[in-house]
Amino acid sequence: MTLNCRQVLNVMVFFGFMFNYMLRVNLTIAIVEMVDKSNATAGAANVFRVLSPQAVAAPAGRTTFAWDEHQQNLVLGAFFWGYLLTELPGGRLAEVVGARRVLGWAMMGASVLTLATPLAAALSHYAIATLRATIGFLLGVTWPAMLPMAAQWIPPADRSKFMSNMMASSLGAAITMPVCGFLLATWGWESTFYVTGAVGLAWTLLWFGLVYDSPAQHPRISDKERRFIEEALAGSVQSKHKEAPAVPWRRLLLSGPVWAIVLTHVASIYGFFTVVNQLPTFMKKRLGFNIKQNGLAASLPYLGKYLMALGTGVAADYLKSRNRISTTAIRKTFTTFAVGVPGLLMAIQIFVGEDKVASVAIFTLALTFNGAVTAGYLGNGLDIAPNFSGTIFGMANMLSSLGGFISTVMVGSLTYQNNDFLSWQIIFGVLAGTYLLGAVIYLVLGTGELQEWNTPEARRPDKEPESLPLRNSSAA
After folding, report:
1. Per UniProt, what is the membrane topology (predicted)?
2. What pLDDT score was predicted for residue 413?
């Protein structure tokens, strides 16, 4: 069976975001074996090692490093400093030069640097921190860049299913942990970087060979498929052979529907970061259960989130194709489900939080239900302003990325030297309020209607044709 060009794009995006996550978290898993445990908590007295950590021989003959807690946190956190810088520029750059190059070169660069991670680690913790910040800088463009690609290729009735491919990052989380664990045990920590870097590099080569920025630029697309896509898009997006329209910043920044997407995304990601990164600490210190060491309990939320994303994406596109309800109603319904339900679950957690089984169930369900964002606000920028969907998503992702830092500060300040249940009840209350506020904001301001400022007056579809002439070509 021959896949058409849209199906190839879906497959490439699915695996691309899975591998993207592997490049992001491989260090988080490998660092457990990279650090010499007998020296991992060395303090400021060991000045020489702080300034120039030296590799030491591990008992099994493998190289490890005498990094203390401060140095480890610097190495682990460096990724996010780079990641924050390129969210908004990445989305806009994809609108101007095309997502194929932006996403492809970013993944290639991150993969090559991943292969060089063992060498950087051998030099010093500053070297590997710089390398990880650069990887973050590169991967920061990947999520925002995908929306301009979808704007050119995916008809409105298929967009929710397409967005669910980006949630393959959740599958990447579920797969990366056991795979990297096997590599660590079998070939040592270096192998996690060699394997994930090589996989990312192989994907990049396929990406450049199989994917193009628009149907008009694809050399192997059939006339039938190209005509279907262009008619479905109905001139709502600027053709890639023309100069990208300038961002109408004033109207965009004053747009209620834009802020509905941005603020709801901030609330959703803040909740996600807190549940994933901070609540395992609650489980371990308050309930005596290390969820990260329980493979099933650790993997279920990620698997559930992807399945929820896929299922709700299919449901949303079915409703869209049958014209049963409006796009606005679809987006609001699924956003309320994806953000509001986790808020209610966190409110329940306030009262049952000292029950181990209930806590695991609530955290798992909260992350699972959150997968419905693919049918809700996540692809909403494609509805309201496909020409600037990368810019909108870049703005949302940049602000939401701060949620990880804010979450850490909040939990740290509330539990510092006082890890009692009351402190955690406050954290659950803040989480519940944040989730529910995001749902309310979207219900009030969100819409699925195309915004007038998406198409500048001089380039409206009734004034200028939007596509190149069809070529004679074979099916992809």
Report:
1. Multi-pass membrane protein
2. 81
Of the candidates 139, 22, 120, 137, which has an alpha carbon nearest to the alpha carbon of residue 75? 120
Q: Give the tokens for residue 110.
A: 């991150």
What residues pair up with 123 in beta bridges, in sequence order?
none
CA distance 243 to 205: 27
Rounded Cα distance between 28 and 126, Å, is: 16
pLDDT at 239: 62
Which residues of the chain fall short of a pLDDT of 50? Answer: 40-60, 458-467, 472-476
CA distance 73 to 77: 6
Residue among 373, 380, 98, 360 at smallest CA distance from 213: 98
Give the Cα separation of 341 and 415 in Å (integer): 26
Judge whether 87 and 401 are in contact, CB under 8 Å. Answer: yes
Q: Is 156 left (phi over 0), alpha (psi -120 to 50) or beta?
A: alpha
Q: What is the rounded distance in angstroms from the CA atom of residue 369 to the CA atom of residue 301?
A: 9
Q: Which of 376, 10, 72 is nearest to 207 (CA)?
A: 10
pTM to 2 decimal places: 0.84
- In DSSP notation, 102-159 reads HHHHHHHHHHHHHHTHHHHHHH-HHHHHHHHHHHHHHHTTHHHHHHHHHHHH--GGGH
Q: What is the pLDDT of residue 265?
A: 96
Q: What is the pLDDT of residue 375?
A: 94
Picking from 261, 259, 301, 274, the residue whose alpha carbon sits closest to that of residue 434 is 274
The bridge status of strand 55-57 relative to strand 63-65 is: antiparallel
Answer whether 144's CB lies under 8 Å from 396's CB: no
Q: How far is Cα 111 from Cα 135, in angstroms, rounded to an integer?
A: 8
- The whole-number pLDDT of residue 300 equals 81
**Neighbour-count burial for 204-236, b at 16+ CB within 10 Å, e otherwise:** beebeebbbbbbbebeebbeebbeebbeebebb
- Measuring CA to CA, which residue among 34, 102, 92 is closest to residue 66? 34
Q: What is the DSSP string of 12-28?
A: HHHHHHHHHHHHHHHHH
Tokens of 347: 């409110």
Q: What is the DSSP letter of 45?
A: T
Q: Say if residues 218 and 212 touch (Cβ distance below 8 Å).
A: yes
> What is the per-residue pLDDT for 240?
58
Q: What is the pLDDT of residue 41?
A: 44
What type of residue is 183?
L
DSSP category for residue 246? P
Q: What is the pLDDT of residue 38?
A: 62
Separation of alpha carbons 217 and 215, rounded Å: 5
Per-residue pLDDT, 33: 87
State residue 458's pLDDT score: 45
